[in-house]
Write a structure and sequence with these properties.
Elements (H helix, E strand, L loop, with lengths): L2 E6 L3 H16 L3 E2 L8 E6 L4 H21 L4 E6 H6 L2 H5 L5 E3 L7 H9 L6 E3 L25 E5 L1 E2 L10 H5 L3 E2 L2 H13 L4 E5 L19 H10 L6 E5 L8 H9 L6 E3 L7 H7 L5 H14 L4 E8 L6 H14 L3 E6 L17 H24 L5 E9 L7 E5 L4 E4 L9 E9 L4 E7 L4
Parallel strand pairs: 1-2, 1-3, 3-4, 4-5, 5-6, 7-10, 10-11, 12-13, 13-14, 17-19
Antiparallel strand pairs: 8-9, 15-16, 15-18, 16-17, 18-19
Amino acid sequence: MPSVYIKTYGCQMNERDSEQVAAQLVAKGYSLAPSEAVADVILLNTCSVRDMAEQKAIGKMGNVAAEVRKNRPEVVLGFMGCMAQSRGRELIDRLPDVDLVLGTQKFHRAADYIDDLLQGRRDKIVDVDAEDGSQSAIRDHLLQGSARDRSVSAFVSIMQGCNQHCTFCIVPDTRGAERSRSVPDIVAECRALVARGVREVTLLGQIVTSYGRREIPAREGRSPFVQLLDAVHEVEGLQRIRFTSPHPKGYGLDLAEAYGRLPKLVESAHIPVQSGSDRMLKAMHRGYTRSRFLEIIAQLRSVRPDIGITTDLIVGFPGETEEDYLETEELIRQAQFDNAYIFRYSPRRNTPAATMPDQMPAAVKEDRNQRLLTLMREIGQQRYAACVGRRMEILVEGPSRRNPARMMGRTRCNRIVVFEGSERHRGHVMSVDITRAGSFTLYGDPAVLPWE
């Protein structure tokens, strides 16, 4: 049978979508190729959040097409995901060697379409239409017998789409309106993952805290999302629950309290703030203020003082003054984030922000980006250094990516810890004594071996 190579750009949702497609193809007899150089099918799962991600994917496909069409003209080339959804047939018009353009609601069609292309039944396929029920179309996404099958953590998609319509964001166009899976369906997937050795799940959605808000009524003061957390918490054998990405508007008291009453819900929160300026937040259509965001942080830390908090930030949004930027710096100092993903504003077509006046020069965006990165690095390193000398619990995930001779695990507050270990540690929850801190990485020694 043919082999397939999938390259993924962008977020965790894209990672899971790629896993879904790979599992689907392997179930039909395809093998996974180690690189595009030997693959019969080459798929790029794309991101549209920033222009750079789109240009990388287009450039990559152009290079791949130029190479394979000379020596292996029968290779199937395809785009999937957000850029495929946004651009559709335009991608084939621009790159005629591309055979497949598959939208975000069509991943479950990938195997059938690829079969058709390989067998010559169809020439070019573009499918970016909406499809009811696509959010529940694929569940099993860990590959039997693969390295991913030995993973102790897994992504679980609980919904698709977004109704927020931030003025800078193209996601509502590329992912569609919010559509949630049922609680029993999600719980069943979590149980199946645990049966295969998974100990930690990360619940995924464009805005996970919006889960079920149109389908599931609040009960006993608990939102549909908190009800889902309660249900997943009951899965026997599951040890940790994470979720990403939420919206600050979704942090009611019920969610803050859940951190205190659900032991499996780890003390970690990634809450995108985007800006520390109320004026910019209003222009972005974020729906909260700086003071409300800081109130959420205070609530979470009152429940779990050791919670790890990270965020997303945008610099150089249209009309951002130096004073607006400095308010973002001050927010970082007040919030004391563990880390932040900082992005230069990138205009996206068909979004309100793309046509706003006072677009920032690239030099201004780069200057503010570097200044914010420097500040965040200083604060993050202080917070990581404060862990030295502490004993912390980690879930061992496997070999360190940078040094496969060592093992790595993740603390409950989502800090990576590297230590001297072996494959026998994989999947164990164990304690480590933190001996030093690097740049957003901790190093430690096992305190108590799990079998002692």
